[in-house]
User: What shape does this take?
Amino acid sequence: MPELPEVETIVRDLAGLLPGARIGAVEVLRPDLIDGDEPDAFAARLKGRTVRDVARRAKNIVVGLGGERLIVNLGMTGRLLMAKAGDEDPSHLGVRLSLSNKRELRYHDVRRFGRLWVVGEEAWRSFDGGLGVEPLSDEFTPDWLHASAGRSRVPIKTWLMDQGRVVGVGNIYASEALFRAGVDPRRPANTLSASEATRVVQGVRQVLTDAIEFRGTTFLDYRDASGERGGFAERLKVYDRGGEPCPVCGTPLERLVQAGRSTFFCGSCQR
Ligand SMILES: [Zn+2]
Assistant: This one.
């Protein structure tokens, strides 16, 4: 599932390509991908609009259209790709936006857990307000994390993955961040000291920044806006490496299941 670095990579690519393009025909081939509006109404809200900007909020791609916004959530296997008009369609094409510059923005999704929807100003504010803190923003500070985590007994790894608290940190980067922080993922959130909270904030910021630099992590499905794989998978230190030696101390890395998701950690380095 794409997490913050993967979505940020796509957003940065599209931010260099989409602004100024005018949306022409909108073709919905898979109506179940559209939320909020019937497919015809969805298409009508987009047609004729000019893209102003492309941004990210949590794991969502937000295409600003002046008053309205198109929001794309990639779900598990969604891809949002720029293509030339007339290029062969990918399999599992769900939505096609024809653009004024003989290009197309195509959404395709094998498993169809992704969603596209259009919001006006008020719906946007309500959506934005329901999401947690952006981990690369100035709001994500050690003081904030220490105070918020102090009110919860949930294991810190599960706590970090709650999108109502911190957005964009999923299963891969939560494991990686806690390894960098030297904090055991099973620790109840409210047992973290101020200095551990500082290390968790630094670990989260560092792993997300590094992953963006390498254009995200691809195991199977994630592709950037040009269809290329991310380069960060081989740089993961613990995720999916159960039984391999810890890159710091050599102890075999452990795997356990928390809230139904695999966690990887070093029982020696992480306390
Ligand atoms: Zn270790």
User: Anything to note?
Assistant: The CA atoms of residues 28 and 95 lie 5 Å apart.
